[in-house]
Amino acid sequence: MLIGRFGRTTQRPYVEGRLVVTVGVQVYQADVSFLVDTGADCTMVGPADLARLAVPLGALPPFSISCGGVGGSCGSCVLRGAIAFADARNLYVYSLPVSIADPAHVPEQMPTLLGRDILHQWGMRYHFGLGLLEFDVHGAKIVPLPPDYQALPGSPEAM
């Protein structure tokens, strides 16, 4: 089971994961706070996390795929990628196309969205008043963690 969190200032629901994308033969990865967005069709990387991945903008394919939502529309491109989540016992890995929002046409503070491409495979318990945000993970490749695995201090599973 994954444990999410609510943002301290925004009170939005987040879950922590590791994002990996490939551009040609190059692999880029970063730890990401994914905004849980049941209204998003797909997972979409925002500008701050794209910068954290350190993918050279010139190496990306054209932002020719139109993408829209409540906040408006923008161009996007798609990269091959994977997203990994961990609890105290397992690593859960999804291999999927990852959409990248055109950083020139979305607000810099746009968060990375965890969309229904993954959320449709999870069970979710959400109770803001109790600070409860839990996910039962399904449909992922499961990699058991070693018995001596120690969660990083400050991570949800260490609390």
Please characterize this protein's 3D structure.
The chain is mainly beta and 159 residues long. The chain has 2 helices and 12 strands; from the N terminus they run βββββαββββαβββ. The protein has helices at 47-53, 116-119, and strands at residues 2-3, 5-6, 13-23, 26-36, 44-45, 65-69, 72-86, 90-101, 113-114, 123-127, 132-136, 141-144. Strands 2, 3, 4, 5, 6, 7, 8, 9 and 12 form a 9-stranded mixed beta sheet that branches. A 3-stranded antiparallel beta sheet has the order 1-11-10, with no helix packed on it.
Write the layout of secondary structure elements.
Elements: E1 2-3, E2 5-6, E3 13-23, E4 26-36, E5 44-45, H1 47-53, E6 65-69, E7 72-86, E8 90-101, E9 113-114, H2 116-119, E10 123-127, E11 132-136, E12 141-144
Parallel strand pairs: 4-9, 5-8
Antiparallel strand pairs: 1-11, 2-3, 3-4, 3-7, 6-7, 7-8, 8-12, 10-11
H/E element string? EEEEEHEEEEHEEE
Q: Output the structural class.
A: mainly beta
DSSP strand tally = 12
Radius of gyration: 16 Å
Distance between the termini: 14 Å
The biggest sheet amounts to: 9 strands, mixed
For this structure, the quaternary state is single chain
Helix content: under 10%
Low-confidence stretches at least 5 residues in length (pLDDT < 50)?
Answer: none
Please provide a brief summary of the model.
The protein is built from 2 helices and 12 strands.
Please name the defining characteristics of this protein.
mainly beta, three-stranded antiparallel β-sheet, 2 helices, 48% strand
